[in-house]
Amino acid sequence: MKVIIDTNVLIAANGRDCPQVTPKCQLRTGQYLRDIKENGIIVIDNQWLILKEYRNKVNQTGQPGIGDAFLKWVLTNQTNSQRCQQVKIHPSEDNSFQEFPNDPQLKKFDPSDRKFVAVALAAQDCPPIINAVDSDWAEFYEALTIYGISIEFLCGEIVSPQTTQAQVPNPP
User: Fold this and answer.
1) What is the distance, to the nearest Å, from the Cα of residue 67 to the centroid of all Cα atoms in its chain?
2) Architecture of the domain made up of 2-153
3) Start-to-end Cα distance in the chain
4) E-assigned strand segments in the chain
5) CA–CA distance from 17 to each of 50, 57, 114 (Å)?
6) How far apart are CA 30 and CA 9, in angstroms?
7) In the chain, where are the structural domains located?
8) pLDDT single digits (tens) 131-146
9) Is 133 within 8 Å of 17 (Cβ atoms)?
């Protein structure tokens, strides 16, 4: 299984610096990251934009949390094609990416999350983007699905149809 993982998943798995994370969400995100390490492939960009964001938010030494350990694992495996796939994305002058849809419905989409969409669209099989607590993904869910973007919500108790206008599927 190939996935793109939003930074908030690592933060939620750590259970610190994120007051909206419930114990249930922390457990779910931590288990998800463990599962990816054992059986999955993470998709990142060739510009290190995702890795730079991870490094700014969690500890790359792998301690003390599960999200920290995941970052260390990604850094260790970034050239291992059995665990990590790097795709080429193209930053544009408007603080976005050539791959990001030029759609009025997405004009207010968080610029810091556009790299994840660009990576999904640049990858051959458009892997899902995994989210824990970022409500922007739910708010723009319908507009993104038009372009083949799928989003998996690990913490539906935090980001759900009741908290946004989009119809978001329940987490697994």
Assistant:
1) 12
2) 3-Layer(aba) Sandwich (3.40)
3) 15
4) 2-5, 41-45, 84-87, 91-92, 96-97, 129-131, 151-153
5) 19, 9, 23
6) 8
7) 2-153
8) 999 988 999 999 999 9
9) no
Estimate to the nearest angstrom the gap between the alpha carbon of 110 and the chain centroid.
13
Q: How far apart are CA 136 and CA 35, in angstroms?
A: 25
The pTM for the full model equals 0.90
Which pair of tokens denotes residue 52? 């730079």
54: amino acid identity, one letter? Y
Distances in Å between the alpha carbon of 94 and those of 90, 102, 122? Answer: 12, 11, 18
DSSP 165: S
The Cα–Cα gap between 79 and 63 comes to 22
Position 159 scores a pLDDT of: 57
Q: Cβ(90)–Cβ(97) under 8 Å?
A: yes
Q: How far apart are CA 125 and CA 142, in angstroms?
A: 19
Which residues have C-beta within 8 Å of that of residue 64, sequence separation ≥ 6? none
Alpha-carbon separation of residue 84 from 100, 126, 161 (angstroms): 22, 15, 32
